[in-house]
């Protein structure tokens, strides 16, 4: 039984992405007998300007977490935000989780401060030959061909859905409404291309004849609404930040789920939609293809409208069997036994 510290800094600040991944990872670790403590940003700092929160993240990752690891006598420490502590890298306790290689790709074009921070910490961690985990087979496949990662112990820690499965079990008899709508799971990142997704939607007469609800932009509603205003789109509702129960209700009552992106580390929205028994319309990218079954419709700019209609019509699908929990638990066991 190992004592593990997990640095889930943005829990309570961000409501999708890595915070959800980290919370589910804790469940998997506990299933393997670990004692897990989660360290997040103090609540009093949640309302600070985002730039200050990001600086606080760096300070906590580089200074506070290594100190807590020593004082708390933790046997393992997990850094799930693509970056890691330089101090922790000197021990064999730290695990760096890589979701994607977007910051590394930017080296060839432009290098932001955040990308520089991620790249430097990753390279230092890898230079000392420390443990690295990837969140998907797609990301791991890319990582295995990266020269500076070749000396690291590599694991596959895929996204998991323990919490969503538990919620579905609790709300199995939840009453459905009769409103007809599709759900777009999006975000404000450049890879989500929200403006381009709305251009595609606007050009498809079949799509515009139904209501669309957007999830994942609760903290950026004004930004999203301005895009809709510029495009003169009226039949799209940008939802506020949702509770877990509200999110589940929106997915279960939707006619279909739509995920648009240029690149993803894992492609969580596809599985979220399928677990809820919905057909899914998804961009034709490797992370989404990894989860494809007969109810996942992949599209490009030219086939969008055709695939949208197919996904919308097929709105009563069989359940989706999650294969990733077994993989995750097996990989955790390997990691725990290795050191």
What does this structure look like?
This protein has 339 residues and is of the alpha/beta class. It has 14 helices and 12 strands. The protein has a 6-stranded parallel beta sheet with strand order 2-1-3-4-5-6, sandwiched between helices. A 6-stranded parallel beta sheet has the order 9-8-7-10-11-12, sandwiched between helices. β11, α12 and β12 form a beta-alpha-beta unit. The longest helix is centred in the N-terminal third of the chain and has 22 residues, at 50-71. The chain is globular.
Lateral strand order in the biggest sheet: 2-1-3-4-5-6
Count of helical stretches: 14
Mean pLDDT: 89
N- to C-terminal distance: 13 Å
Major β-sheet, in short? 6 strands, parallel
C-alpha geometry: globular
User: In percent terms, what proportion of residues is strand?
Assistant: 15-25%
Short summary:
42% of the residues lie in helices and 15% in strands.
Topology:
Layout: E1 3-7, H1 18-31, E2 35-39, H2 50-71, E3 76-79, E4 94-98, H3 102-105, H4 113-127, E5 131-134, H5 137-143, E6 154-156, H6 162-170, E7 181-185, H7 194-203, H8 205-208, E8 211-215, H9 221-230, E9 236-238, H10 244-253, E10 256-259, H11 268-275, E11 280-283, H12 286-289, E12 296-299, H13 304-313, H14 324-338
Parallel strand pairs: 1-2, 1-3, 3-4, 4-5, 5-6, 7-8, 7-10, 8-9, 10-11, 11-12
